[in-house]
Amino acid sequence: MTATLKAVLAMAHSRLAVVLAVLLPLAGCATMARKLEAPRLTVVSIGMISADIFSQQFRVRLHVQNPNSRSIPIKGIEYELFLEGDSFAEGNAGEPFVVPARGESEFDMTVRTNFVSSIGRLLSRMNGRDNSKVNYAIAGKVAIDLPFVKAIPFQDMGSLDLGTLR
Fold first, then answer.
1. CB-count exposure of residue 153 (10 Å: 0-12, 13-18, 19+)
2. Does the predicted model carry a pTM greater than 0.85?
3. Mean of the pLDDT values across residues 84-110?
4. Are residues 48 and 123 in the same domain?
5. How many CA atoms does the CB half-sphere of 69 hold within 13 Å?
6. Which residue segment(s) compose the domain that 4 sits in?
7. What is the CATH number of the domain that holds 127?
8. Could you give the maximum distance between any two Cα atoms of the chain, in Å?
């Protein structure tokens, strides 16, 4: 084998090593991203912050459970909240936080509603039935602050004690 051929092979080998050194960690990240399970979000409480004739602001407290063996850095949540089957609020919660591996966390988000389009309909839907609880559904996407991880969809349904609507 000539010296030139040996030099070419050595150069090709070192380039291949560099390419593999770059691509293997990226493949690992992509594999990890596919295995990430969606966190579970549940509504803990809803409390009125302010109100006038045109709109209201509510603080919605959410509980997040992380079923994964690694922490999840959440950079934002896009959501739609339904009360008694009717759209109550939608928007984005953009305060970042981290949910520990196999752990849980709670956070607040502020939502705005229109009295005519949400509170009024909620009250009319509850007329004539047990008014101690309200059914909710929440759905949306959780934006994760990790490379190669797309927003993860979530949804949850349950009921809230109206005592939490303070």
1. exposed
2. no
3. 88
4. yes
5. 2
6. 1-35
7. 2.60.40.1820
8. 94
